[in-house]
């Protein structure tokens, strides 16, 4: 007879060493241990359930945020195998949760395309949890295993009851270890947005999210889209005005690689093209995107020539022309994806370029032939974009020539700093001339440049590049930044390390800030993505007591500060009116001085959410904006993206 216990002990040591390595260097496995890493744990577990769905055995997944911020993920798949694993001599459930490299091929060796840590996810989550409970429903029986303090088995897989034969699936509950993570509070919205995305990307799969910390939430929200990525395109175009009714959906498969794309043009000027591989956003594109872009440009040009919309003498449409106002989702499911680039956000598999090109060009050509009216609208749109491109190029050349003559003065508005090393320089874009005046007097003229804005800035969500370039305010900004715009944009030429938007803490101020952010996001996106954009935070209150002056940013800070004071002091509290009413010294001390100011960095964690928010806030459609503001009113503080 084999000595089972001996066998187990040997493994046990190995197992604990493996999980201990995860606890020592969690960043290697989940990136960070901040709020992002905390949420990452959920996706590792959900990924396993998605794999079971992609294998065709699961059609419902439920995510529950429990009281106390533990997470439950339930699926109705086949259930993790419960038998003894031949390699480890312990149950497969326990193996999957405690052996670091038990991923992928455990159990049946099924077809597996999801992203994440490719099957080691469960053990990584276990290693980083205070406790984990796994329940498996299978063949009329209920099994349970428990782990504590970084993955130590406290209850081996045990049969704990019976259930109906038809009931199968896996339920996992885990509580992240507060010793590992900076925060232990889950954000419903963050989980919801990704769960909705997973529902769009996996048509027919239903996903539910419920918040049991919230007494009022007893049903949660369920997302299920029969139309898959077509419905994603429809959703992304809600705040935009589509120029044709039908959402074009094309798909194909070859050698186990699934490829699909959905698209619809809208009347706007920016494009929203997002691509995914195995449900992961490939934000740096790759071969699947390249195939589609190449085919899109070729098919539209061919069609426009064939129908004589594009005459012989006309230049061909460019890749930029054919993507203006295009909302598109590209989704590829690949059994062996190669992710490339610094952030692994690029698909490298070369065979996908061909597949994407073939599937797209055949399907799209067919669509244009069968729908001549839509085809005409689309081609006309791309031809208008081409004309605007030429006009913008001329305008750009004009403004470049002008700025060559006038490098120092910038139309008289920019008060530049003396320092020439961009990494030490910052520029304040200031609302109004009077605040601009105080800022110029109060600044550190060595490193701080000031650009006062006179009028309201143009809403670029409703304007093409050529019109934006005709706008004085925007031209000054482009010249000041030094990066150029459009085709000749060059991030390395940015003249300031920090671009600081300084507007009042009122509704007008927020409006100007959103207009500026829209401009930066649409026309200077790499500047935002590289983290160069900040919002200054002028204080809302000034609290004086005795000789002490304290500035605070909001009501909560004011109340906290007042409560901290000796009850005998008599503070007389001033509500600050606006930037324009502060003198140079006050403005410097409260908002500009690097020793005392509070800046908020504007980040783009999620490009899709940012795009959605800008279209919503700045686009043509009124109704979605009304709804968005209504729904977000309680969170108005967090509106910035
Ligand atoms: C491999 C084989 C079988 C099921 C699974 C994996 C499976 C894993 C997970 C992880 C979360 N939920 C899951 N659901 C299923 C099938 C084995 C069998 O049919 O006995």
Largest sheet: 8 strands, mixed
Q: What class, by secondary structure content?
A: alpha+beta
Superfamily (CATH H level) name of the largest domain: Histidine kinase-like ATPase, C-terminal domain
Q: Helicity level, as a percent range?
A: 25-40%
Total number of beta strands = 23
Give the count of structural domains: 3
Our measurement of the CA-to-CA distance between the termini, rounded to an integer number of angstroms, reads: 64 Å
Low-confidence stretches: 1-9, 104-111, 404-410, 634-641
Enter the CATH topology name of the largest domain. Heat Shock Protein 90
Mean pLDDT: 89
Content of β-strand: 15-25%
CATH class of the largest domain: Alpha Beta
Looking at the overall shape, the CATH architecture of the largest domain is 2-Layer Sandwich
Number of helices: 20
Please tell me what the overall shape is: globular
Could you tell me the radius of gyration in angstroms? 28 Å
Which molecules are bound in this entry?
3-[3-(1H-pyrrolo[2,3-b]pyridin-5-yl)phenyl]propanoic acid
The strands making up the biggest β-sheet line up spatially as 5-4-3-6-2-1-7-8
